[in-house]
Design brief:
This protein is mainly alpha-helical. The protein has two helices and no strands.
Length: about 60
């Protein structure tokens, strides 16, 4: 039996984050106007996006 040991990393596109404030700036933008931010992200990155680039498993 052959085992597949290659782990595939799935990356979800998202907005770049500020090196100074990190993901906090995107969270604040989302809290301020979630519909507007989501619309901009969908328009720029497609139908599957993350709030921030490398933002973990939460997909919006």
């Amino acid at each position: 039996m052959i085992a597949n040991t290659i782990e595939r990393k799935i990356t979800v596109p998202g907005a770049r984050v500020s090196p100074l404030f990190g993901h906090i700036s995107q969270v604040l933008n989302f809290v301020g106007d979630s519909i507007k931010l989501s619309s901009r992200l969908f328009e720029k990155y497609g139908s599957v996006v993350a709030l921030a680039e490398g933002g973990g498993t939460n997909v919006y």
